[in-house]
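Hi there, hope your week has been kind to you so far. For a while now I've been wondering how a particular protein folds. I'm sending you its amino acid sequence along with the backbone structure tokens. Could you read through the record and tell me how the tokens relate to the sequence? Take your time with it, there's no hurry, and the full record follows here.
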Amino acid sequence: MEIVTPKSSRRSTRLRVEIRMIVTSMDRRHPFSAECIALVVSPQGCGFRATQALPLETPVLLGDLPGGGSSTGRVASCLPLGSDGKYFLIGVSLYNQGNVWAIADPPEDWDCAPNSSDATSGNPVIKNKTDWPYNLNSAPRASNSRRK
């Protein structure tokens, strides 16, 4: 689902998704590493749900992205979700903008090609709208036996 915003306030369309990823703080002063869910994505960044707040400007690594990729960025916003303090919506601005989310048919204003199956990536193109990330109620991911 596209979130429509005035052209003057947004550089590109945001997409509502549910993408599981591992978010790790790269700042020793603010330790954080957890599996989080990206709820909104664009080529400039994302908004993800976390159980811990992170200070603004904290550098983060987004790992286990679709296709096994990763990307880095900085915390641009951090807002509590609800009044109980259990969850936060953290906005991340990517250092290297692009379709790191492997959206097969990104909106035209993303100005980027989807991550495709070619000699450089080896990842399959998602063409069916019933496939992930379009099916928001996908089955849980298999656990990675190397992680504890």
Q: What stands out?
A: The beta strands are 2-3, 14-25, 33-42, 45-50, 59-63, 71-81, 87-94. Residues 113-129, 132-140 have pLDDT under 50 and may be disordered. The chain is about 0% helix and 35% strand.
